[in-house]
């Protein structure tokens, strides 16, 4: 099930798109995205087309087709989760941001483009 950012349990379009980008960060098959994001085939296709058109997601074709979040998509995820932390503090997922930082660093982005993650657990 997708996690909503509006705290009501309902997901909006941005939450769904972010969830797709999150599960595709290291490459994933379309059916796995469908199950992990709890989306039906037609809705998923609409999101995949939109995310690819925005260059947030790319298709990798090997023996099977995999979808993978692009550098631009990883940056969007990083900013999205950083904003959630700024707004809601303790409900923020520090481990996810560390993973995003690692993924961005692995893509060899300039360090100044990354937002620092402050680890201020009380």
Secondary structure topology:
Elements: H1 13-23, H2 30-36, H3 41-53, E1 57-61, E2 65-69, H4 71-88, H5 94-106
Antiparallel strand pairs: 1-2
Helix pairs in contact: 4-5
Characterization of the model:
The chain has a two-stranded antiparallel ribbon with strand order 1-2. With 122 residues, the chain is mainly alpha-helical. It has five helices and two strands. The chain has helices at residues 13-23, 30-36, 41-53, 71-88, 94-106, and strands at residues 57-61, 65-69. It is globular and about 40 Å long.
User: What structural class do you assign from the helix and strand content?
Assistant: mainly alpha
What gap, in angstroms, lies between the N and C termini?
Answer: 29 Å
Number of DSSP helices? 5
Q: C-alpha Rg, in Å?
A: 15 Å
Q: Describe the largest sheet.
A: 2 strands, antiparallel
Number of domains as seen in the coordinates: 1
Task: Please estimate the helix content.
Answer: 40-55%
**CATH fold call:** Arc Repressor Mutant, subunit A
Average pLDDT for all residues: 78
CATH superfamily: Winged helix-like DNA-binding domain superfamily/Winged helix DNA-binding domain
* SSE sequence, one letter per element: HHHEEHH
The low-confidence runs, each spanning 5 or more residues with pLDDT under 50, are: 1-8, 111-122
Shape: globular
The fraction of residues in strands falls at 5-15%
CATH class: Mainly Alpha
| Number of DSSP-assigned strands | 2
Main sheet: strand order = 1-2
What would you say the CATH architecture is?
Orthogonal Bundle
């Amino acid at each position: 099930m997708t996690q909503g950012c509006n705290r009501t349990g309902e997901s909006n379009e941005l939450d769904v798109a972010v969830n797709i980008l999150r599960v595709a960060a290291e490459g994933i098959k379309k059916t796995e995205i469908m199950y992990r994001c709890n989306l039906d085939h037609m809705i998923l296709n609409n999101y995949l087309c939109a995310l690819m058109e925005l260059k947030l997601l790319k298709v990798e074709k090997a023996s099977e087709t995999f979808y993978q979040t692009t550098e631009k998509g990883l940056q969007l995820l990083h900013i999205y989760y950083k904003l959630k932390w700024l707004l809601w503090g303790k409900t923020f997922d520090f481990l996810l941001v560390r993973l995003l930082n690692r993924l961005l660093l692995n893509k060899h982005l300039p360090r100044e483009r990354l937002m620092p993650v402050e680890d201020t657990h009380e």
